[in-house]
Hints:
By secondary structure, the chain is mainly α. Helices cover 84% and strands 0% of the residues.
Amino acid sequence: MNLIDEFKKGVLYSAIGKYSNVIVQLLVQAILSRLLTPKEYGVVAVVNVFLVFFQMLADFGIGPAIIQNKKLTKKEINSIFVFSCYLAVVLGLVFMSLGYPISLFYSDAIYIPISLVLGVCVFFYGILVVPQNMLLREKNFMAVNIVTVIANVLSGIISIVLAMAGFSYYSLIISNTIKAAFLFFVFYFKTKLKVSFKLDLGPIKKIFSFSKNQFIFNFINYFSGNLDKILIGRYFSTSSLAYYDKSYQLSLYPNQILTNVIYPVIQPIMSDYETKMDKIKNVYLLLTRFLGTIGLSLSIFLFFSAKEIILFLFGGQWDGSIATFQILAFSVWIQLILTITGAIFQSANRTDLLLVSGVLTAVTNITAMVVGISTGKIEYVALLLVFAFTINFLQTNYLLMYKMFESNYAEFFKILFKPALMAASQAIIFLLLPTLPFSNFINLVIKGMIFVFVFGIGLILTGEMKVIKEMIAKRK
């Protein structure tokens, strides 16, 4: 099977999984946002920041390293799995003990019992790393995505039932733990790995060079991406954190719909072409053109439709998220393209450049967050973050185009010219559109139809429609 066919097959299964998950998540969030208050969501948003950190520690850069290193034997992968089990036990116990310092930091004792429950969740996410990435290494995208959809449906049903029964924020925490356990057991039996008490560090040393850079990048990237939530939770109210987190998570949905469909496929397939920089560059530019064409116009639509989207999906109690979401909408297209850059660095075995990019990103993001939080307004935090994302977009593509591909900005930005024209036409149309007097749902439908119509006309007039058709039909 050639490269394009592998991509098509991988993206197809990934799309089925991701789109199903987005629909499930939106439905679950729409229901839960009417059952739980912003304050309850704020409590969960606080602990989720630490949960993500421990998930990153549990991965330890092992996942991408397993995919990249084609010389690892089944026995060596099993040894890495045993190591991950020991690591998961330690991290789970440490997380359980963190309830006390977290409760002191946020002046709320509720985080003590919550940390005990999530310690179990950390354990399951830790032992999940190897079996899940082993399936991706084997390009078994269908199994990974179907099982993940089932897990999300199960988790969603449990969270809704628990919320209706009055379990408050525990409805989200317990369902997440059950989801992690379900994913592990299914992937574990599918990969036929074996649990052993014997610890062999030889295979860990074999992947250490790759996983070390990946882990340090993930570590730095975590703080540059989550410090805002940690500080907002500390210096603002839990409701403010909930408004901010809700708008931020909503701004990431385009990533789940578009980039997260492509991202899991890139490294497992492109790692076979590790030394062929021209091929990797062409794939990156092709994906950038596709994501830019959709992302730039989508950013404009989300900005002008923010009120209808927030109020229709989550209800009137979430109107505090509207302004923040409008600001973050301008970063949607940037995040779409930036998200795939990590897999491109990994595919070329250049986690050293990925690490450099991560350090520069961290410095920019953290500076923006600290300055934004000092203003006392979550809208300013969002505005400065968009500015930081823009700088990071430039520096990351400098490392890719100049250092890795030995090319330049001109080749990169040339492919974004027509997508920018399409976005400009969207902005003009929505600026001229009068205020619609209907319900949020009807207004959203009308604006959505306008977006699709103008986008379609733009594809035809700029010739991007022809390019997309050629991309789909291309065989080699």
